[in-house]
Amino acid sequence: MGSLAVATTKDDIRAGAVIIHGAEECYNHSMELLKALGFPEGVMPLKNLDEAGLVRETGFVWMKQKAPYEHFFKGTNTKVRYDTEVTAYVEDGKMKKMTGVKSKQMLLWVPIVEMEQLALAVHSRLRLLQTR
């Protein structure tokens, strides 16, 4: 038997979203959301945001910025790249199915797919690609 796949579009995923526009409004909305989820300030240092959205029913969020941005976290000695659009599904203390965020590990840029707030530290899960 074959399987039936249902394609979802960007509009389907974002249906019913609260959408914010404008740099200052998007920044404030994003900071409030991160704080409500239990993440420390500065964990997602996005610059020049154009749009931010939240679908409360599913926890889907997105943030759009004018250009990709790289940030160096001194505390972890890690360089992180944020694409022009960052997406995730959020719940209390977690961000899952993240897109648009990569961490430089050794010489490779590795996608960060999940972040979790544990006690006083933020832990990231990286997606490592296997080659055969």
TrEMBL record:
InterPro entries hit by this protein: At5g01610-like, DUF538
Alphabetized Pfam families for the sequence: DUF538 (PF04398)
Protein name: Uncharacterized protein
Organism: Rhynchospora pubera
Lineage, opening ranks: Eukaryota, Viridiplantae, Streptophyta, Embryophyta, Tracheophyta
